[in-house]
Design goal:
170 residues
C-alpha cells in the first residue's frame, strides 16, 4: 500500500470510497435516511471542487490501484481556536484495512505536509461517540471543546481535538 496525493482521475473511486466509509463508520450512529442522502454523484462534485485547491492536501491510500483510505486537510475552517491555522477535514479507511497502522501512516503524511507550513498543531472535529476519537487520542490528540453542527440537514454533536504535527506517539 502506498500513500499519494489524490489526482483528478481518482475522483470517481474517491467518491465511492467516501460514501462507503461513511456507511461503515456511521451506521447506527446517524439516521439511515441521512446516510441514504449521501450519494456518489454529490461526493464527485465535492471532490472535483476540492482537489487542486491551493493549500489543501488530499491523500489516498492506494492498494495496488484500489483506493482503501483517504485523508484531507488544509486551512482552518470556522469553529477552531485561532491558534490552529490548519485542519484535518477527514480521515477514513475501509473497515477491512483498519487496525493495521494505515490510519497512523495517513495521519503522519498529513502532518508532514502541514508541518512544512510551520504549523505546530492541527485541529479536527470528530462526531461525538465515534470510536475514531480514541485513535486521535492515541496519536497525541487532546480535546479542546464541543459544538453542535449540521450534517446533511440534521444537527449532531462534535468533539474538537488538537493534534500536534510532527509528533507520532508509538
Amino acid at each position: 500500500m502506498r500513500i499519494r496525493e489524490a489526482e483528478p482521475a481518482d475522483i470517481g473511486a474517491l467518491a465511492r470510497l467516501h460514501v462507503d466509509t461513511w456507511h461503515e463508520t456511521y451506521a447506527g450512529r446517524l439516521p439511515d435516511d441521512l446516510l441514504a442522502k449521501l450519494t456518489v454523484e454529490a461526493r464527485e462534485r465535492l471532490w472535483t471542487e476540492m482537489i487542486g485547491q491551493p493549500g489543501t492536501h488530499h491523500l489516498v491510500l492506494d492498494d495496488d490501484g484500489s483506493l482503501v483510505g483517504f485523508a484531507s486537510a488544509g486551512p482552518r475552517r470556522e469553529g477552531l481556536p485561532d491558534d490552529l491555522g490548519v485542519q484535518l477535514y477527514a480521515l477514513y479507511l475501509r473497515r477491512r484495512v483498519q487496525g493495521h497502522g494505515h490510519g497512523r501512516h495517513l495521519l503522519e503524511a498529513v502532518h508532514a505536509r502541514l508541518s512544512e507550513g510551520g504549523h505546530a498543531a492541527v485541529g479536527l472535529w470528530v462526531l461525538d461517540g465515534n470510536p475514531a476519537e480514541a485513535f486521535y487520542t492515541r496519536m497525541g490528540g487532546v480535546r479542546f471543546g464541543t459544538r453542535r453542527d449540521a450534517v446533511l440537514g440534521i444537527f449532531v454533536d462534535h468533539v474538537g481535538m488538537r493534534l500536534p504535527t510532527g509528533h507520532s506517539p508509538t
